[in-house]
Amino acid sequence: MQIPLHLAISEQLRNQITSGEFQPGEQLPSEHQIMVQFEVSRITARRAIANLVNQGLVFSQQGKGVFVKEQRKVTYSLSSPMIFFEADMLRQGVRSAIHNLIFKPVSPPSPIRQTLQLTANHANQREVYLQKKLLLLDEIPVAIDITYILADLGKRYANELKQQMTFPTLEQNGIAIDRVTATLACTRADPETSEYLDVPLGEPLMVYCYTAYTDTDQPIVTGEALSRGDRLTYSVEIRKRD
Amino acid sequence: MQIPLHLAISEQLRNQITSGEFQPGEQLPSEHQIMVQFEVSRITARRAIANLVNQGLVFSQQGKGVFVKEQRKVTYSLSSPMIFFEADMLRQGVRSAIHNLIFKPVSPPSPIRQTLQLTANHANQREVYLQKKLLLLDEIPVAIDITYILADLGKRYANELKQQMTFPTLEQNGIAIDRVTATLACTRADPETSEYLDVPLGEPLMVYCYTAYTDTDQPIVTGEALSRGDRLTYSVEIRKRD
DNA sequence: AAGTGGTCTAGACCACTGA
DNA sequence: CAGTGGTCTAGACCACTTC
């Protein structure tokens, strides 16, 4: 067995997709049709389709069929995230919305405590607000954001924070963010995240971890955003240091 | 059927992994053991394992078994990619190496021509060098990079470019890079990439697309790097504009 | 030789969709 | 109702690893 049957089949279908023979949104042959056309068992036909799903090329809907994915991504600019987010989205022809899931004072876990440079003396106080929010683009959940913000800021701007992105809210209230350190990585959806973002288990996600500092080098916000890899792209401009 | 059997099983195993009951590198129960323990058919046992593979938690080796993945990632700094790459890797305790796959003059495809601001008159000339190279960290292929560089630079520094990263090579030769525009996104391994990077089909990858400009705003290099999402993290520092 | 995972078959029942 | 995909079973053969 040089090349598995299911792979040969999924490769042929894949070519038909990338060559445009199957257009985005179009329906693929049904499992039954594949069984007949390639003279294989249903399991093998299903396996071939699973390969395509796993490559992010198609998705399946029970009772309806298998369809070619649209590949439209929205770009999120890291270099000017402060004020222009909504405008940026509109420019890309996308309606954005935020659903607040959790907003409450908590005693932060140790690594958060460290990045926010909180001293240990107040260990039992509610020194930060924890916010979980869902970012919707065109009514589709695209990212889930978990933010820790210093308690006085969280308390003061609670209402605004629940309805907007964090950085713009701070900027609008005169809290200047001087720099943001961030990392970008990749994971796969676990069952909980797959619920929130309405994606299958294991779907590739991007992880954007950030910490924002004032001009006195005081960290005020840290958190991470899990976003759907098939819907979001991050852009950044790097300038040479002097 | 509220919750599928295969999911229930994979969830239980997942808990045992995240709780540390199964350590990284440790072997999971075999398909046969799962069949007996949960009283399911082999297909269902396999499906449960497939769920875990798909979440990036385990990997399987024919004839040996299923093992918990190590989760060690290396950080690549976008803010100082110029000179410090090798030093950065060493600091993280990682041996880095580069395998040159392709290095040749080509007539660039239209989108590349545009980003490099090449005029159409020379359409049939070999105005750029195309380089494909593999980045190995600890002898493991981690990223595949496809670079287009202006022909005179490519020709002049051919030997160095084949052995080092692109940006450091240019810096060392006095070609100052003033700024880099980049995007970071997510895809999944297609069959070709899965060969190069030695990962299963559909493995999440990061896509780093970049264009470098001189201080006269002349683009000199553009390209994209496909990296293994389970091995590489990108870091960046964003400073407020004035 | 024994144990592991990889591929494949035939067949059953269920859940959902749409005419 | 027919057609679709989702779950599950029992059983076969193969390829690879380890002893």
Taken together, the total number of domains of chain A comes to: 2
| Average pLDDT figure of chain A | 90
SSE series of chain A: HHHEEEHEHEEHHHEHEEE
Q: How many beta strands in the DSSP annotation of chain A?
A: 10
Oligomer: homodimer
CATH domain class name of the largest domain in chain A = Alpha Beta
Low-pLDDT residue spans of chain A: none
| Rg over C-alpha atoms of chain A, rounded to the nearest angstrom | 22 Å
Largest interface: A-B, 47 and 47 residues
Helix content of chain A: 25-40%
CATH architecture of the largest domain in chain A: 3-Layer(aba) Sandwich
How would you describe the overall organization of this protein?
The structure is a homodimer of 242-residue chains. Chain A is an alpha+beta fold and 242 residues long. Chain A has two domains: 5-68, Winged helix-like DNA-binding domain superfamily/Winged helix DNA-binding domain (Arc Repressor Mutant, subunit A, Orthogonal Bundle); 74-235, Chorismate lyase-like (Chorismate lyase, 3-Layer(aba) Sandwich), CATH 3.40.1410.10. Chain A is built from nine helices and ten strands. In chain A, the strands form three sheets. Chain A has a six-stranded antiparallel β-sheet with strand order 4-5-6-9-8-7. A two-stranded antiparallel sheet of chain A has the order 1-2. Chain A has a two-stranded parallel sheet with strand order 3-10. The radius of gyration of chain A is 22 Å and the shape is elongated. Chains A and B meet through helix 1, strand 7, strand 8 and strand 10 of A and helix 1, strand 7, strand 8 and strand 10 of B. Strand 10 of chain A pairs antiparallel with strand 7 (179-188) of chain B, so a sheet runs across the interface. Chain A binds a DNA duplex (19 and 19 nucleotides) through helix 3.
